[in-house]
Amino acid sequence: MILEIITPNKAIYNGEAKAVQLPGKDGLFQILDNHAPIIAALKKGSIKLELKAPLSGKIQPELQKISDTVYSIDVLGGMVEMNNNVITVLAD
Amino acid sequence: MANLKELRTRITSVGSTMQITSAMKMVSAAKLKKAQDAITQMRPYADKLQDILVNISATLDPTEGAYGEQRDVKKVLLIVITSNKGLCGAFNTNVIKQAKRLADNYTKQGVSVSILAIGKKGRDTLKKDGYQVDADHIDIFKELRPEEVGAIALGVMEQFLNREVDRVDMVYNQFKNAASQNLMTEQFLPIKPVENVDASNLGDYIYEPGQKEILETLIPQTLKTQLLKGMLDSFASEHGARMTTMHKATDNAKEIRDDLKLEYNKARQAAITNEILEIVGGADALG
């Protein structure tokens, strides 16, 4: 699936992902490939992305590396929308 | 010929003015590029947010919430976005004029007006002309950060919720291109219903935790984004306006300098001719 993480400042990530873990208002949840369409509100926490391949090239400084294919980013809140296997995270 | 010296000084002073204006033009051009990038980068965010709002409003009316409450308007807050520095043509004047017109209109209807000034120019002029400027944010343009703008927006929302104000309008310059800006007046609060909802192409979404809760987070978010967009627009417009104004000023200075130079050369030639005449006259008298 395609994952996009956008903040008001800039796009942080745009590319393939295997799974993404999000701090939902009601608790942590994970979205996997081909999830049903969903819109969810996020609270303060960190987003964890599992990628298919190690990131290469320029990485935005907000992404913290956990391992080669796992990264995390701290957010203050936001929204997530998933449709047609495209996840858009609007983070603050 | 005292005139010659005078002309020379004027040429030098026009020349240094020209240097300043063209330097300012280049500085603005560089800043404009950055400001323009900031808007383009924020647009996908704003668009997506709007998409989600449209999606939800297909089933839930966003004006039902606390932020959509239409009340009898007794007190209006005007958010006036100007720049901190001048020398950018009619950029600030237009906004201030529009703000004054709005304020006067409201006052005529017996509505009290308070002004939230963002940018030094708007604050100073409006204050001087006797309008009630209750709050200002001057330093915000030094580094336009979403968090700080968000805080301002939150403050305004709180005022609305506490019934301190019944309506919030926003006056600013929208960035069109480097040479032109659109003067915009937008209703900030209460929020307006979403228009043209096309229910046919909406996805069948799962809402987590629920539509209502999402709407509650979404609306402040949208408002923050709206204010941020206004400020980014204004910031980019400022530099666009300054660039064009300074370009014109440089052109004008150049014209003046050319005229002065022509005059100077004429005077110089006249002086030389005079001198030669004197010498020739003297030689003739001797011979």
Distance between the termini of chain B: 29 Å
Mean pLDDT of chain B: 87
Main β-sheet description of chain A: 5 strands, mixed
List unreliable stretches of 5+ residues of chain B. Answer: none
Corresponding CATH superfamily of chain A: F0F1 ATP synthase delta/epsilon subunit, N-terminal
CATH architecture of chain A: Sandwich
- Rg of chain B, rounded, reads 28 Å
Largest interface summary: A-B, 25 and 28 residues
How can the largest sheet of chain B be summarized? 5 strands, mixed
H-E order of chain A: EEEEEEEEEE
Beta content of chain A: over 45%
Q: Strand order of the main beta sheet of chain A, please?
A: 2-1-10-9-5
Q: Count of DSSP helices of chain B?
A: 5
Instruction: Provide the helix percentage of chain A.
Output: under 10%
- Our count of domains of chain B comes out at 1
Beta-strand share of residues of chain B: 5-15%
Q: What fraction, in percent, of the residue positions of chain B are helical? A: 55-70%
CATH topology of chain B: Pyruvate Kinase, Chain: A, domain 1
The helix-and-strand class of chain B reads alpha/beta
Describe the protein:
The complex is a heterodimer of chains A (92) and B (287). Chain A has strands at 2-6, 11-16, 19-24, 27-32, 38-42, 45-50, 64-65, 70-75, 78-83, 86-91. Chain A is mostly beta strands and 92 residues long. In chain A, strands 2-1-10-9-5 form a five-stranded mixed β-sheet, with no helix packed on it. Chain A is globular. In chain B, 61% of the residues lie in helices and 15% in strands. Chain B has helices at residues 2-57, 91-108, 120-128, 146-161, 211-286, and strands at residues 75-81, 112-118, 133-137, 167-177, 180-189, 206-208. Chain B has a five-stranded mixed β-sheet. In chain B, a hairpin with a 2-residue loop joins strand 4 and strand 5. The longest helix of chain B has 76 residues, at 211-286. Chains A and B meet through strand 5 and strand 9 of A and helix 1, helix 4, strand 6 and helix 5 of B. Strand 5 (38-42) of chain A pairs parallel with strand 6 (206-208) of chain B.
